[in-house]
Write a structure and sequence with these properties.
single chain; about 260 residues; alpha+beta; Serine Threonine Protein Phosphatase 5, Tetratricopeptide repeat; elongated
């Protein structure tokens, strides 16, 4: 079977012979669509070298104005275990001044590449960039001190929790910390949720020390009596456990408020 690169080059000849549709109109040039499809095929096959070669050709032609080819190239790097190259792709996009709107897919692939390779710290760094670029928002607008991760991929959700624990939790703990997972963005309807057990594994096995949690419960009453029901889409970290974890895992000055001395 011909490689994606061979198929693409054959197709581009036809496009060049027939001219580019969409010139003077609003349609995306077919050449870009062909490249995106071919780079995606490389990603499916784990051929990251071919994917980056095609992306470079698109850039050299001045047609890499859309984020789709970068996202597909990052996916190829992830499939090939090339997390550092995936980060380089994101840096190229940022350096070229692309709008950060619509880059959730690109960021998620880069974070996923780092997470797959066991580079948790790098994944958190990339997530922090996404927060800075206003690509990600993790606090629930309607529930205080609640992380809303239900639209995140597993790797992005894990990085979000790590980021919050490292950078946003400390001086003020107003209540129990809720981690809302829902069913997870990539969970197939009718199947077992995948995001919640991934966050459970992070809290119980990957953090040092482990961070105790429980399932959110609610009291349900009917004619047969009252009972507690577990919410399989929300984990709760009790405030006292969160404070204890901070004491055990972080330097005192990073989680304690410095109260100014009284003046006469």
């Amino acid at each position: 079977m011909p490689s994606p690169v061979t198929l693409l080059h054959g197709a581009t000849v036809a496009v060049d012979d027939g001219g580019r549709a969409g010139e003077g109109g609003d349609e995306e040039p077919p050449l870009v669509e062909l490249f995106v499809t071919a780079i995606g095929a490389c990603a499916d096959a784990g051929e990251w070298r071919d994917a980056l070669k095609l992306l470079r050709e698109l850039e050299d032609a001045g047609d890499a104005t859309d984020l789709a080819p970068y996202t597909e190239a990052a996916r190829a790097c992830r499939a090939g275990g090339e997390w550092a190259r995936a980060i380089s792709l994101l840096n190229r996009v940022r350096e070229r001044g692309h709008s950060m709107r619509g880059t959730v897919g690109l960021y998620s692939q880069v974070i996923g590449a780092c997470d797959d390779a066991g580079e948790a710290a790098k994944a958190v760094e990339i997530y922090a960039l996404g927060v800075q670029d206003k690509v990600f928002t993790h606090w629930h607008a309607g529930e205080p001190f609640s992380l809303d991760l239900h639209m995140f991929s597993q790797a992005t959700a894990v990085s979000a929790v790590r980021y919050v624990l490292q950078h946003e939790v400390g001086n003020f703990l107003p209540a129990d910390l809720k981690i809302i997972t829902g069913w997870g963005k990539h969970t197939v309807e009718g199947s077992v949720p995948t995001l919640l057990p991934r966050i459970e594994r992070l809290l119980a096995q990957e953090l040092s020390p482990p961070l105790p949690y429980e399932k959110q419960t609610s009291l349900h009453c009917d004619r047969d009596g009252c009972r507690l029901l577990e919410n399989d889409g929300c984990l709760v970290v009790p405030v006292q456990e969160l404070f204890r974890w901070l004491v055990d895992s972080r330097p005192f000055e990073t989680y304690c408020i410095n109260v100014p001395s009284a003046r006469a």
